[in-house]
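Researcher: Quick sanity check before group meeting.
Model: Go ahead. Protein one:
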Amino acid sequence: MLHAEHLTKRYGRRPALTDCDLTIPAGRLIGLVGPNGAGKSTLLQLACGLIAPTSGTLRVLGSRPASTPAHLARVGFVAQDTPVYASFTVADHLRMGARLNPSWDQALAERRIAQVGLHPGQRAGRLSGGQRAQLALTVAAAKRPELLILDEPAAALDPLARNGFLGNLREFVAELGASAVLSSHLLDDVERVCDHLVVLSGSRVQVAGDVPDLLAAHHRILAPRDELDRLPTGVEVIRAERADRHVRVLVRAAGGLPPIPWPVEPVRLEELVLGYLTRASESSAAGAAPSAGEVRR
């Protein structure tokens, strides 16, 4: 669905993305997570063709982003502020969608509008934040794209509205048979609906993969402080926390963890993400940004 090689984007001297290699398979609902300023919005805008890379390559659905009108029709985008036209009614938005998109599904749009309680005569400027998000999602999905891209569309919503939006998103993706990328700094949202994860921090991809595979490859161990160097070769230390005379360590062993003499526990998705974000933050503060494949002993 998306393939990037050495993808880099700078704004002046400030790097937003640096030398990113990333491959995302089709048929996934991808969670893109990271702190503010990590490069999430930049990656999504590159994928939509709204901006161009400084260097490197990016292909979306097999082509350069927004290379042709036909390619644009295959991608639906909901920006961070869930933009709608304040003076347009809900029905105006659907008529606009039908005029602009050759594969527009009016029946789907009308059904979804009714399901979320929007009246066709309501003006968008009078809708709540949750209602505007639902309208923007409906317009993006009713063009029947192969890929839905959503840039933190639920960040400003209250818990009830966010719950409804995420439920509709999952239904849309299943109904369309599409892939979707959901950028969010709310890990609970990602854990609820996504089956593939990309962690961005410090303008770099820290880790990416299907969620079950990532959880299976990561472990928490409790080792004596002075024996941590006995970890088997190929076991990557993501984060280490000192606790009395022991060290609590988050490790990655992609090929399976070899036998070790210390307690081993599974990890939760939140712990996995925070481990990579903490490592990236500490490495950045020390003047070195690690890549996803760096192996430590």
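Researcher: Fine. The other one?
Model: Protein two, sequence then structure:
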Amino acid sequence: MSVVPTSQVPVFKLYGETRHWPTPDLLHCESIPERSRLHDWYIRPHRHADLVHVLHVASGQVELELEGSQHALQGPLVIVVPAMTIHGFRFSQDIEGHIVTLAQPLAEQLGQRLEEQASVLRHADYHLLAQPRKARRLATLVEQIDAEYRQPAPGRDRMLGALVQALAVELSRQADPHGLHGSAPGPHQRDRGHERLANFQALIEAQYRQQPSIERLAEQLGMSSAHLNALCRRLADRSALQLLHERLLLEAKRQITYTNMTISQIADSLGFSEPAYFTRFFKRNTGFSPRDFRLRQHAAESTET
């Protein structure tokens, strides 16, 4: 696998894809074979502006490219890929395992709840699972996340949150604080642009319900709105306003799907002055009115249960 220059690395919205985040959940889970088989077992180097990957390789081989370093690895192991990290994979055809993808808001929540124990999710690294007992513990957690994700049930959102929190704690225990395994690439060092993008995303997370102007957010970051927009387009392949709207849209989908709030209440909670404005915003970005989206989500749940 050859190393791709940073300037040529595409920004994807999901694992190996250009499509938008597919569900109202703050995480996505799928098996490694079901995705990589579609790409002939090779996921070319890419990065994500606002997603964190946790790959659990139960068995099989993977050629990993992580921030320009290449590694030939054998499962069982875990690979952590923070936002903006350049990564690519070539899997053996007998690969077994899962990939759990966390949306940035969930990663931020874990950071607030777990503090230092969540730092493992901020460092590009891999962790070999040499001890069978610990390997089984982590594999069980990932399997539980996958099962809960695929089969909607009462309390699903809370259960997924609890399981992914346990996963982060287990990962922090697996991580080698002294680098004794000697072969991992080490923490991903962000440049100033990446730090500013991360700061912008943190501001969005804190303020998106008030729908602040991009000019106001740029001012809080100590830069012009033109500079902020150029930064977002260069690193995230979206404008600053698109990133803000994507966070609003994600929360709207979650509230429509998982709460009994009226459309008017949801609109008000997300800073829209009129429900009609919210409906137009939602339909423009999804193709469905909020009510139609809710009906579709409930129909899908009824079909799966």
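Researcher: One line on it for the slide.
Model: The first strand starts at residue 27 and ends at 31.
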